[in-house]
Amino acid sequence: MNTEWADADRLADLREALVVAGDRASVAVEAPYTGEQIASIPDGTEADAAAAYERARDAQAEWAERPVAERVAVLDRYAERVLDARDSLLDLAQLETGKSRRDAVEEVLDVAATASHYANVAPDLLESERRGGAVPGLTKTTVHRHPVGVVGVVSPWNYPITLAVSDALPALAAGNAVVLKPAEQTTHTALLARRLLVDAGLPPDLLCVVPGEGARAGAAVVDRADYVCFTGSTAAGREVAAQAGRNLVDCSLELGGKNPLLVLDDADPEAAAEGAARACFANAGQLCVSTERLYVHDAVYEDFRDAFVGEVRDRRLGAGFDYAADVGSLQSAAQLRKTARHVTDAVERGASVLAGGRERSDLGPYFHEPTILADVTPEMAVHDEETFGPVVSLYRVESADEAVARANDSDYGLNASVWTEDTDRGERVARRVQCGTVNVNEGYVATWASLDAPMGGVGDSGIGRRHGDDGLLKYTESQTVAVQRGPRIDTGPLPTGLWARAMTTGTRLLSKLPGWAR
Ligand code: NAD
Predict the structure, then answer these.
(1) What is the rounded distance in angstroms from the CA atom of residue 403 to the CA atom of residue 294?
(2) Are residues 144 and 187 in the same domain?
(3) Which of these, 61, 142, 218, 319, is most buried using a 10 Å CB contact count?
(4) How far away, in angstroms, is 170 Cα from ligand 1 center?
(5) Residue 304 shares a structural domain with residue 187
(6) Which residue range is the domain that position 503 belongs to?
(7) Same domain, 48 and 188
């Protein structure tokens, strides 16, 4: 394979940074473009997670004492390093995931933008803040933000650069250390992203990587965390939430989706088709926010369908470490199996295939064509289950109300998209869709790349948010310090009855003061 990383010694060199002691079982890592094994990683244990937290806790105590400006300077330098190392990162991410280079480059840009964003906003967010006191003028109340300690991050393989480090960056800016358990298939990519962070000046023990399977290494990392940031499937997210609950620590869970895209009667069908093709098939559909359900108004249905089929048929599939392909491979045999199962099940139950529909083993073992299904009915698995692959179902609707109702008829609520020529109407419709992010005249990038705004899901798509102020403040404990001057807020020398009457009058007067509650 034509990449600098198809070299066992270079991958072994990256693994030197892993926190693993002694002999461990190994987990095979393969290159999805060919199906060949390229390396194996150690399967981390409880002892490895314990060692990682010990190191991380020691490093965190000193890091938290550093001025915020010093901490965010590392993030600023990191943004530069990531952009400088773009091609190396892309090669390794492609090697481990089989994605197209076009899809991989979004990750590099995202990480650099996230680092710069939190470098800019962290100093203000972390500043101690005066708040309204109990008795105006007499109670001086201040809220301080302390790091929670060590954050456990568990990440999936589909965006191996972004999801391994982007959630760690605000945690580090807030003065925490991080223990990361990356997906077993993409551990080397996570290690390269971490190496660049250390090159940018991060003390190495502030980001410790524990490799291995989710059920053991992942669970061991979750069990010791002061805060858990998990990205992955809804099933694993429930386990993680239960574990966090038992330990009484907070968590954010960024989980799956069955994301709808609504084409309203006044939409430009060509523009909507072009946007929908990107929204459905970016990263070969292995994207938490990608579209799997299309609700198209009767008035534009035929025009949209024909333009969409054309867009999808034009997409170039291929394996390669250049920008020639639009769509790459699926990441694993399991991903291909699930995709093929959804298509076969739907076709056997009467769905029609408007484009794609076939595995493409001529290109590589896990390739599957971008696929459009019509005539999909509720008993088909693809109707409600997340495929997390390149398959979308097209439905005709009679009105915007029907589109909204059907979009909302899902256990998930991650991301949605609305297409219309009237953007005011688009915003109104968007607010009725029960998803954490909704894009108007765009598939997913507009909300995801609005780094200043929160991103996350409702229902089975998770709890908590990344990005925005929430994406950093969730890694802090707020502490309220109130200094009372003058008379204390209790009965003092007064008889209790008199005190109660005085306080009743006082409370009536105070509640009329503008801003008293603040
Ligand atoms: P997964 O849940 O199997 O694995 C994700 C990570 O969790 C891996 O590192 C895995 O080893 C670990 N893990 C698994 N079980 C665990 C457990 N019990 N305790 C601790 N860690 C555990 O998911 P996947 O198949 O790798 O990723 C695909 C899923 O992730 C899809 O459902 C997709 O929608 C979702 N996803 C969501 C987002 C988002 O931001 N909402 C982003 C990417 C992927």
Answers:
(1) 9
(2) yes
(3) 218
(4) 21
(5) no
(6) 479-510
(7) yes
- Nearest C-alpha to atom 22 of ligand 1 is from which residue? 214
* C-alpha 280 – ligand 1 centre gap (Å): 20
Say how many domains are in the chain. 3
> What is the three-class DSSP state of 96?
helix
Distance of CA 396 to the CA centre of its chain: 31
Residue 43's pLDDT is what?
A: 96
Which are the contacts of 350, defined by CB distance < 8 A and separation ≥ 6?
A: 375, 377
Ligand 1: residue of 249, 252, 288 to mutate (most ligand atoms within 8 A of CB) is 288
- Positive or negative CA dihedral for 429, 432, 438, 443? negative
> 323: closest CA among 92, 96, 90?
90
CA 486 to chain CA centroid, nearest Å: 49
How many whole angstroms separate alpha carbon 113 and alpha carbon 105? 12
What digits encode the pLDDT tens for the residues 12-64? Answer: 999 999 988 778 999 999 999 999 999 999 999 999 999 999 999 999 999 99
Residue 179 sits in the same domain as residue 299: no
pLDDT tens across 269-301, in order?
999 999 999 999 999 999 999 999 999 999 999
517 pLDDT higher than 90: no
